[in-house]
Amino acid sequence: MKSGKCPKCGSSDLSPRTWTKMAFVKKIICQECLYVELWADNPEQAGVSRRKLVLVYCVVFGITAALVAVPWILALLRDD
Prior knowledge:
The chain is an alpha+beta fold. It has one domain. It has one helix and three strands. Strands 1-2-3 form a three-stranded antiparallel sheet, with no helix packed on it.
């Protein structure tokens, strides 16, 4: 869509390039069919974004696992 036309429907009614929550990744949205394209100016920047995203998911998973595991472990210890 960098060319100015949607690859899905051919429309030229595109949203302006905006930043996403992932660092260095931009998005363009077709206003006709709502096709979305994400892209980075530099492939190295996309790799950095993927690593940050994986790190965030690991931290969130770890916190969630701890919140579930601690009460369960405490309940097991009380039963003894």
